[in-house]
Amino acid sequence: MATTLKLEIVTPEAKTYSEDVEMVTLPGAEGEMGIYPNHVPLMAQVVPGEVIARKGGQDHFLAIGEGFVEITGNRVAILTDMAIKAENIDEVKAEEARKRAEARLAEKLDDTETALVAASLAHSLAQLKVKRRNR
Description:
Layout: E1 5-10, E2 15-21, E3 23-28, E4 31-35, E5 42-46, E6 49-55, E7 58-64, E8 67-72, E9 75-80, E10 83-85, H1 91-105, H2 111-133
Parallel strand pairs: 1-9
Antiparallel strand pairs: 1-2, 3-4, 3-6, 5-8, 6-7, 7-10, 8-9
């Protein structure tokens, strides 16, 4: 029986993360999911939030955006529009982006603009959550 699983996180720009890990926690549309080796195959939607990858007994944190996850017995593949390791998050820039997005949402916007600004807000909130938890 396998004791690790391969976690791969891919964005349109690059493969952000590719490691063998002991466990993954990720933000699913139906709630937080914990994935261990030999998990039942599953496809699900992921929402902006925090991914926790446990490797060597230590937790590694990433902020992710919207996307999908494919889980097979020993592989977790996350396809997302954003993925940033906790140590690479600029808290000041994320806070500025949050403020800008909240100000824009207060304006009269069409549906497309509202969706784009809401996605930007979700990205900045995910980054802030990860960064502030891991100070």
